[in-house]
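From the pipeline queue, job 12 of 40. The input is one protein chain; the requested action is below.

Action: predict structure.
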Amino acid sequence: MEKSKLTQIADALPHASREMPFGPEVEVWKIGGKIFAAIGGEPLGLTVKCDSIETARLLIDLGKAMKAPYFHASWIRVDLAETAQDDAISRLQESYRLVRGALPKWQRTQLDDQPAPEIE
């Protein structure tokens, strides 16, 4: 999976913002101040939230992911060199949906009321 394609998709998600709080090696995307994805590390990987700890454990047990270091047990890290593009994109979008959906109602409403940023 090509990092630039995943970066482009993450940047295009409504109200997503990109930061580098851990240095230039790791890019982090947030919605409403909460992380929904990180790309970086060696080997190059994508860190995302799963819908449950059980789902994360299942993916880890199946060898499709590894535990995401420093994240809650419901987060996984997939190796981008070994992950199909469609799977990586789907996991990124699902993580965005989960994190956005977990924001407080007032914050979700505020995001819904604001126009999404222009995509270049």
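Job complete. The helical segments are 3-12, 53-61, 85-102, 105-113.
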